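Lay summary

Proteins are chains of building blocks that fold into shapes. Our project writes down both the chain and a compact code for its shape. Here are two examples, one after the other.
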Amino acid sequence: MLLLSGGKNKIMKRVKAYGCEFCKKLLYSYSGMKAHEDKCFKNPKSKSCLTCKNFNFTGVLNGNKLSPNEVEILKFKTEGTFKMQWDGDPDGIDYPVLNDEFKYLYDAEMQNFCDADSKILTKLKTRCEKWEG
């Protein structure tokens, strides 16, 4: 049961809600929750990208998946954990930049990628015919 505050007096009101066992979303109606669970991206029965072996959140450059080495180098951009050699910065500020041979990775981005289709996923989907559990 949920407790909600309402009105000027901030009186608590007990309400009945149903929760998705996969993503923890709450809805007031049983039928609404049943419909949601059938298509929930985190429910393996929906055969969605998030539960597929072919799904990756990985580095992509110009529509192509980066190599494992390039992904490790790209982590510098997202996590600040880059461990390669650094070039000096011309303005004297002490922060790292990529060596010349890796500067092309500045244009790479972390994106949802489907290995089965070898393409970027602009939208997650359910009921995929290439889904693997």
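And here is the second example, written the same way.
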Amino acid sequence: MDLETGKVRWSVDRFHAGTVTLAGETLLVLKETGELLLAPASPDRFQPIAQAQILPATVRAHPALADGFLFARNSDTRSNELVCFDLRP
């Protein structure tokens, strides 16, 4: 969104529920389905550069990012998993 005009710069309809976290110049999008997408934070477009299924659905907890490590968990009563990924270059 352009903060001066309020104009939406781009939008993506296929995400439904999930979280978006800014890590430096990269957007980390964790979908409710457990899919993680990484994309450059750009006002021009959303173009993922990486994606992976990191957890089984249903992911409703917000992930945490600390010192380049991403922590995420799901709330599926069958598997309740906590994962950690090293996102450092």
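What can we say about the second shape? The chain has one domain: 18-86.
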